[in-house]
């Protein structure tokens, strides 16, 4: 049995510890936003956050995340409560087929978490592990750079306040 | 939009109909009495639109969304004539019905960059007719004249008062829908030419857009398939025990394409399948290597054989009139589509009925294959189309649907089938490799006097028949199909030129004396459509040759193209506009510009690549793309498709090749079949030329000019003419 935190909730699985986290999240916990693209850590479609850092979950055994915090695209924002990056993705019409975008956004969110004012070169470096076969790269870059540090801080704080109010209510 | 969470949708439909919801449509394919695949309605045939009493406007989108923005594009058409905000539409992928056939193809399929061209008027007409009947119902209910009614944003407006459309659907359901209500004049467009952002952006940015791989039904188990490394080889023998005894495994099955392993969870099936060591039969393809392929094509072009097509004037006269003659060979390798979502589907067979969840470029074919394998009649096979995690032509071949139908027939549970990336790379269908030889003459005035173009390679059409006949004619016996496919291979080898093999080799320029010769060389490697099809390689040959001719004439490549395209006014204009931009560009030191232009899928595109060569590496910094696709219904989608076509084409130009070793594909995943990444992606500027003509496609035409534009820039940077794809500088 392996216990870890998934989008703020404690979960437990009896999947074999060698099973990649991606398949535990998709098949066992039925969160389908994170995608399978290569199974070899080469494309980034499966990107989630582990204790705040972006990881390729198609090559991360679930045994390695015991007692740690995992965040998926579903934990970042929802259609009704968009993360600033998701709002920027909408505003810039970033997606085409859309299959890679959960992974792209999770990589971008981890970047901004650590470096709220990235340069273009920072964005290139942080996003080089995420393939977009449709070629949305110019828009992905534009969307990331449009989310300024101030805006990010403001929206994240506002959301935290809302959640606190909901909990109190 | 959700296609998988059916429970909420069912409730909506049922209550809508019970409450007098309006289902209206417009037949694109003649009369039909079959019930529409709209759950809970059973009302009118030929439906694209449904309006509920609470004013939810659903659009049953007849085409598949693979990223090309078809939901946004076609949604904008109906929104325009119905007077609703496109962003308020509830867009549903239509089930299988002849009324959803592609008017340009005659079947329910998506491809060929034709969706906007084919639906521009029919869908607007269906929506205009719907608006007219709603206005008529409102006039009746409100006791006012039709002329006193205006419509906006899903509402009828009378004397400044707004009434939702839903208020009048009960009355409208009792009226006759007009067939030819007047369409808006272009000047009155409110959404066409404007819609932004795309309608699926939020779903696709929050992980809530459903793809085939995401479908999940109660009791579902997971299957993976092990196939022969060499296409077409059948299973000879295997010891199933090592897989069968692995945890969670319920079945190890022989199916037509190999061996299927079924387990409770995907990872269990995948791990167990790796234990199998099958022996496969020997087939002739097993003696083919990539080097053999190119050598065979060279021998074919050196020989006397070939079928001549597109002949005009007289080559001998043309070459006699030439001052200078240039001849070059151009090579393009096999390519994989590598959509980021590998082939996937969920199939449930229950109580003599079938439900399939998958994203395909041909839902009708998916239905046909399930019928062929299971014997369930088509009217009991529901196809729930999902978003496609990339198409590019790959999802028109439905081997995986055949596989899942065979597996589900043997296992009494719903099946989830997923191909691995290695499966996708090694067991797919591919862009044909091609060797092209062009010999051209120019006179002292810089006019092309002769154009002798030859191409050797395999043909897509017989391969397509092999895949599509079983799907479209589920009752035709396999023996007869094999005979027909064999015959078509022979016909295209010896008698006819498959147009998709040579398209783009001769159409763009004023060629008074020309001929295209085709020599079929078929190694038995599976082929299919790949984004831009023949144009993906022919534009590389023609636009490289045009650049060589301009250099031979010591002339500006744009001026040379302008002189020789007077017979193609729209392409001529695109070249002119792009040339004017190019003249103003001031590339940084060490950067060089390359130009190319091409017409494909009725759309004209010119591209300028700004390139530097550093340490033997080709780097593309910026691409300027000028496109004329007629009226740009959703201009930002046009821009996105040009950007995407450039990126997809750059991967092919700089990196892509599928190589054969003893008939098996050598590449396996993104480490050896690399895809362009963000740090290599150029800035793309798109300029849309507004010719005001009827819309043409944009999914593919952005791709063909990029490889020659880059190659032509590399020539300016280094003096080297690179005539083989992917482009690699000599050491």
What would you note in describing this structure?
The complex is a heterodimer of chains A (169) and B (731). With 169 residues, chain A is of the alpha+beta class. In chain A, 43% of the residues lie in helices and 12% in strands. Chain A contains seven helices and five strands. Chain A has helices at 21-28, 73-76, 84-91, 101-114, 120-127, 137-146, 149-168, and strands spanning 2-6, 9-13, 47-50, 53-56, 69-71. Chain A has a five-stranded mixed beta sheet with strand order 2-1-5-3-4, sandwiched between helices. Chain A starts with a strand and ends with a helix. Chain B is of the alpha+beta class and 731 residues long. In chain B, the strands form seven sheets. Chain B has a seven-stranded mixed beta sheet with strand order 10-11-8-18-15-16-17. A five-stranded mixed beta sheet of chain B has the order 13-21-20-19-14. A four-stranded mixed beta sheet of chain B has the order 1-2-3-4. In chain B, helix 10 (363-374) packs across helix 13 (460-472), helix 13 (460-472) packs antiparallel against helix 14 and helix 16 (535-552) runs parallel beside helix 20 (706-718). The longest helix of chain B is centred in the N-terminal third of the chain and has 28 residues, at 115-142. Chain B starts with 5 loop residues before the first helix and ends in a 13-residue tail after the last helix. Residues 1-32 and 40-46 of chain B have low confidence and may be disordered. Chains A and B meet through helix 1, helix 3, helix 4, helix 5 and helix 6 of A and helix 5 and helix 19 of B.
């Amino acid at each position: 049995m392996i216990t870890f935190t998934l989008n703020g909730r404690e979960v437990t699985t009896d999947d074999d510890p060698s099973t990649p986290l991606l398949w535990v999240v998709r098949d066992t916990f039925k969160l389908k936003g994170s995608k399978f693209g290569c199974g070899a850590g080469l494309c980034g479609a499966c990107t989630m956050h582990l204790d705040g850092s972006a990881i390729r979950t198609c090559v991360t055994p679930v045994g390695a995340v015991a007692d740690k915090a995992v965040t998926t695209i579903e934990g970042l924002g929802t259609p009704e409560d968009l993360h600033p990056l998701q709002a920027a993705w909408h505003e810039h019409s970033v997606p085409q087929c859309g299959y890679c975008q959960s992974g792209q956004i999770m990589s971008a969110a981890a970047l901004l978490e650590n470096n709220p004012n990235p340069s273009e070169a920072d964005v290139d470096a942080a996003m080089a592990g995420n393939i977009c076969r449709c070629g949305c790269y110019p828009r992905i870059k534009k969307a990331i750079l449009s989310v300024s540090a101030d805006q990010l801080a403001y929206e994240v704080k506002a959301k935290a306040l809302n959640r606190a109010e909901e909990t109190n209510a | 939009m959700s296609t998988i969470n059916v429970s909420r949708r069912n409730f909506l439909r049922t209550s809508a109909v019970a409450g007098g919801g309006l289902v209206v449509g417009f037949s694109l394919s003649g009369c039909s009495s079959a019930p529409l695949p709209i759950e809970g309605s059973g009302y009118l045939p030929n439906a694209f639109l449904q309006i509920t009493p609470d004013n939810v406007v659903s659009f049953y989108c007849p085409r598949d969304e693979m990223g090309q923005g078809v939901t946004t594009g076609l949604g904008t058409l109906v929104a325009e004539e119905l007077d609703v905000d496109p962003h308020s539409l509830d867009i549903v992928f239509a089930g299988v019905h002849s009324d959803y056939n592609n008017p340009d193809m005659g079947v329910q399929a998506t491809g060929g960059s034709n969706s906007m061209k084919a639906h521009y008027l029919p869908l607007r007409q269906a929506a205009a007719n719907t608006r007219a009947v709603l206005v008529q119902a409102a006039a009746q209910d409100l006791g006012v004249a039709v002329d006193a009614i205006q419509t906006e944003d899903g509402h009828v407006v009378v004397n400044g008062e707004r009434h939702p459309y839903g208020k009048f659907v009960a009355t409208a359901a009792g009226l006759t829908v007009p067939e030819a209500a007047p369409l808006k004049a272009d000047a009155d467009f409110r959404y066409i030419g404007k819609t932004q952002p795309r309608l699926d952006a939020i779903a696709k940015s929050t992980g809530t857009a459903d793809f085939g791989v995401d479908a999940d039904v109660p009791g579902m188990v997971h299957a993976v398939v092990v196939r022969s490394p060499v296409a077409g080889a059948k299973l000879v023998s295997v010891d199933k025990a090592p897989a069968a005894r692995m945890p969670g495994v319920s079945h190890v099955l022989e199916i037509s394409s190999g061996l299927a392993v079924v387990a409770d969870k995907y990872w269990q099936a995948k791990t167990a399948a790796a234990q199998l060591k099958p022996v496969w039969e020997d087939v002739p393809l097993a003696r083919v290597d990539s080097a053999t392929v190119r050598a065979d094509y060279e021998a074919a072009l050196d020989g006397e054989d070939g079928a001549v097509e597109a002949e005009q004037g007289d080559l001998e006269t043309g070459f006699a009139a030439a001052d200078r003659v240039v001849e070059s060979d151009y090579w393009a390798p096999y390519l994989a589509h590598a959509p980021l979502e590998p082939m996937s589907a969920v199939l449930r067979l229950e109580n003599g009925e079938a439900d399939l969840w998958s994203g395909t470029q041909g839902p009708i074919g998916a239905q046909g294959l399930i019928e062929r394998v299971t014997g369930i009649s088509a009217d009991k096979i529901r196809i729930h189309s999902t978003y496609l995690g990339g198409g590019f032509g790959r999802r028109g071949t439905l081997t995986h649907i055949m596989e899942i139908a065979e597996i589900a027939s043997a296992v009494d549970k719903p099946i989830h089938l997923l191909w691995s990336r290695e499966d996708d790379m090694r067991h797919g269908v591919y862009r044909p490799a091609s060797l092209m030889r062009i010999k051209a003459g120019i006179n002292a005035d810089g006019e092309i006097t002769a154009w002798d173009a030859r191409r050797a390679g395999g043909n897509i059409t017989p391969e397509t028949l092999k895949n599509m006949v079983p799907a479209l004619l589920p009752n035709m016996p396999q023996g007869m199909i094999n005979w027909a496919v064999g015959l078509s291979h022979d016909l295209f080898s010896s008698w006819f030129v498959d147009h998709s093999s040579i398209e783009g080799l001769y159409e763009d320029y004023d060629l008074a004396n020309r001929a295209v010769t085709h020599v079929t060389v078929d190694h038995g490697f599976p082929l299919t459509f790949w984004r831009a099809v023949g144009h993906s390689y022919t534009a590389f040959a023609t636009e490289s040759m045009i650049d060589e001719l301009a250099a031979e004439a010591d002339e500006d490549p744009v001026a040379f193209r302008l002189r020789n395209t007077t017979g193609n006014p729209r392409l001529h204009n695109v070249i002119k506009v792009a040339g004017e931009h190019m003249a103003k560009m001031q590339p940084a030191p060490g950067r060089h510009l390359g130009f190319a232009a091409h017409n494909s899928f009725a759309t004209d595109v010119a591209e300028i690549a700004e390139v530097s060569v550093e340490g033997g590496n080709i780097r593309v910094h910026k691409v300027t793309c000028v496109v004329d696709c007629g009226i740009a219904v959703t201009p930002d989608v046009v821009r996105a498709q040009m950007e995407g076509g450039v990126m997809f084409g750059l991967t092919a130009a700089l990196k892509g090749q599928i190589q054969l070793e003893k008939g098996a594909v050598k590449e396996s995943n993104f480490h050896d079949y690399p895809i362009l990444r963000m740090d290599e992606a150029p800035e793309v500027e798109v300029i849309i030329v507004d010719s005001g003509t009827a819309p043409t496609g944009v999914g593919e035409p952005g791709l063909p000019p990029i490889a020659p534009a880059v190659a032509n820039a590399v020539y300016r940077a280094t003096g080297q003419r690179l005539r083989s794809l992917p482009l690699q500088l000599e050491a």
